[in-house]
Amino acid sequence: MRLTVWDPFRELVREMTALQRAVPRFFRDISPGRCPYPPVELVDKGDSLVVVAGVPGVEKDTIELTVLGDTLTIAGEKKMPAEEGVTYIRHERPHGKFRRLIDLPYSVEQDNITATCKDGILTVILPKAEKVKPRQITVE
Amino acid sequence: MAEEKAESASEARQIVPPVDIYETPNEVVLVADMPGITKENLTLDVDNNELTISGTFEERHVGEKKLIDECVYGRYHRTFALSDIIDYGKISAKLDNGVLTVTLPKHERVKPKKIVVETE
CB-based burial of residue A116 (10 Å sphere; 0-12 exposed, 13-18 middle, 19+ buried)? Predict the structure, then answer.
C-alpha cells in the first residue's frame, strides 16, 4: 500500500474547480491562487460591451485580439526591460507571452469592433448584435 | 459636480505598482507598471532619501454595469528608500506606454574604474 501525504490544497483546488464549473461562464478566468493577466474591466453599456485592459509595456504589434463566437481573446507579449549585462535587484513585473479568454455575456457584431491602445491601456468596444440590444417597449 | 469628484477620489483603489529594479555599473534603473498614467497626473518626489512615485488613473465607467472589475483604475503609489550611492541631482525619468522608467545614476566615486596595467 502506498501512503500519500494528505494535501489539503489539492482538496481545495478540487472543490474550487467543481464550483467553477457550476458558476456562469464569464467567471472562468479566475483561477484559484493566480491573478489572470491582463487585469480587465468589462462594462455593459446597453448598446455595446466595453473591455478595458491594463497592458503597460506591451508593444502594440505583439497584441492579438480575436473574437470567436462569444469569446474575446487578448494575447500579447511583454518583454523584460533589460537582459544583458545587468543585475536584477527586484523583479515583480509580469513578463512573457500571455493569453486571456473573456466570455462575453452577449453576442457582438464582429465586423464593427474597434480597439485602441494608449498609455498602456487597451480599450475594445464591441457593439452588441441587434437581437440582444435592449429595446424600449411602449405600452399602448 | 465637485461632490461627485470627491466621492470617486476617496473610493479610488490604492494600487502598489509592481517594479523591476536592475543595476548596471553606472546606474540603478527602476521600471514601474503604471497603466493609464500620463505625464500630466504623474508625480515623482525625492525627499529625505526616499523616492515616491504616484499617479491616479480615474475610473471611466462610474455607476455603470460592470461584469468584470479588476484592478485597472486606481491610485498608484509607492515609496522607495534611496541608497546614498545615488547622485540625486542626476535622477531622470520617462513615461512610455504606461511604464515609468526612472534612471538613478551612481555617484562618480562609486563607479567602477578600469585600471590600466602598464607593461614594461
Answer: exposed
